């Protein structure tokens, strides 16, 4: 297996859950990890934990539903750590609103968080990786294959993540 020591890894949704675990493990394996999520306090806490364990992490508070924030994430990553080698598109909302009750506003929120952010991040990472290569990891869900009851927004966005992943392979 190839070493990731010194590689620059960006993880969205890094403040909790799966994203936090992925970011911690990447840092433990030697990657310079850039942590992205809305919660500055949680990101700082994780960055401090990673540093205390001997790793390197940079907290970049980011609202993944804002293209401006995502573009800033990639420029800050370049400034703080260098070009992106690994992107983990993890940010997401697990929504359980039945379709007849799904407001357009909620649909847009789930779509922006779960899919549009992944597209923008993949685009920016691919630009950074163009000359030297890299890896993009999109966190999907079994819901793309077996839909959760009353969760059409989540299911549709995770199905689309699977399509995005196939498209950029």
What this model shows, in words?
This protein is an alpha/beta fold and 169 residues long. It has helices at residues 17-28, 40-52, 67-80, 104-129, 152-168, and strands at 8-12, 32-37, 56-61, 86-89, 135-138. Helices cover 49% and strands 15% of the residues. The longest helix has 26 residues, at 104-129. It is globular and about 50 Å long. The two termini are 19 Å apart.
Core attributes:
169 residues, alpha/beta, 5-stranded parallel sheet, 5 strands, globular
Q: Tell me the major beta sheet.
A: 5 strands, parallel
Question: What is the CA–CA distance across the termini?
Answer: 19 Å
Number of helices: 5
The mean pLDDT is 94
Q: Return the structural class.
A: alpha/beta
CA gyration radius, whole angstroms:
16 Å
Q: Regarding quaternary structure, how should these chains be classified?
A: single chain
Percent helix, as a range, is 40-55%
How much beta, percentage-wise?
5-15%
In sequence order, what are the helices and strands, one letter per element? EHEHEHEHEH
Count of β-strands? 5
Shape: globular
Strand order of the largest sheet: 3-2-1-4-5
Q: Which blocks of ≥5 consecutive residues have pLDDT under 50? A: none
């Amino acid at each position: 297996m190839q070493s990731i020591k010194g590689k620059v890894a960006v993880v969205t949704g890094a403040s909790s859950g799966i994203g936090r675990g992925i970011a911690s493990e990447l840092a433990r394996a030697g990657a310079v990890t850039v942590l992205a999520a809305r919660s500055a306090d949680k990101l700082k806490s994780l960055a401090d934990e990673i540093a205390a364990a001997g790793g390197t992490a940079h907290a970049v508070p980011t609202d993944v539903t804002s293209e401006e924030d995502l573009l800033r994430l990639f420029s800050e990553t370049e400034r703080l750590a260098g070009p992106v080698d690994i992107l983990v598109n993890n940010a997401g909302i697990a929504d359980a609103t039945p379709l007849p009750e799904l407001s357009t506003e909620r649909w847009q929120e789930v779509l922006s968080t779960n899919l549009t952010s992944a597209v923008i991040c993949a685009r920016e990472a691919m630009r950074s990786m163009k000359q030297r290569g890299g890896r993009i990891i999109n966190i999907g869900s079994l819901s793309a294959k077996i839909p959760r009851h009353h969760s059409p927004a989540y299911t549709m966005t995770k199905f689309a993540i699977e399509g995005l992943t196939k498209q950029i392979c």
